[in-house]
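Appendix B, example 12.
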Amino acid sequence: MEEQFVLRVPPSVAEHIERLLSENASSDDNSLDLSFSEDGRSGTFVIGNECFPASLLDLPAILESYKTYDDNVLIKTADVGQVTVVREEGDPLPDVVECAMPELVNRVEKDILNIMNGGTAENLDILL
């Protein structure tokens, strides 16, 4: 098994990370750091000279990660149960430790039950 994690960042931070990964330069402006306080749930994400608040949240279910070497066979590489959420400085602190999406979960559950009963999923877009 590999060590993997899910990192959710604001669009501006994602662009900065993408630039860092595409460049091969090493300088202080290209540094990344993630550190957590003693509670293990809140921390700081640093990219270059910018600092952002971060939180460690539990996912509602275990996420399995797979990879392939031949585009045919999938090999399980990790189980991921948490996500690190990086926020802009003014964004509110999450008040829960679980990163849940209740409306999405409810919709998917309803669609699965409809399909199991011979129906179809709602809000389904078919592209031709």
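The domain at 6-116 is CATH 2.40.128 (Lipocalin). The radius of gyration is 19 Å.
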